[in-house]
Design brief:
mainly alpha
Length: 106
């Protein structure tokens, strides 16, 4: 269903930046549990929206959090932001293409 795909991806696009900002706030506060939860949330949302590279990176960050390694999580944040930007652009194009297809099909 094209409309459902647009809704899922669109919701992810709105949420991923908030998740990364929340992750950075947890890191700044030294909150291991919070950072781990945010990495997990990003992983889950990425998997649902089809962002495999982003999901893999968030999974690795989640594992670092479970090991109590905030430094490793913090070191990967720039990479997470880059992957999120890549996925957002690909998803934006996807949503645009799906929208065009829906209009064409009427």
């Amino acid at each position: 269903d094209h409309h459902l795909a647009r809704k899922v991806v669109g919701g992810f696009l709105e949420d991923v930046l908030k998740q990364i900002e929340a992750l950075k706030a947890c890191l700044a506060a030294g909150d291991v549990a919070g950072a781990t939860r945010q990495a997990h949330s990003t992983k889950s949302a990425s998997a649902t929206a089809g962002g495999e590279a982003l999901r893999t990176l968030a999974f690795q960050m989640e594992q670092a959090g479970k090991a109590g390694d905030l430094e490793s999580i913090a070191a990967r944040v720039p990479e997470l932001e880059i992957e999120a930007a890549r996925f957002r652009e690909a998803a934006r194009l996807f949503v645009s293409d799906v929208g065009k297809a829906c209009v064409e099909r009427g």
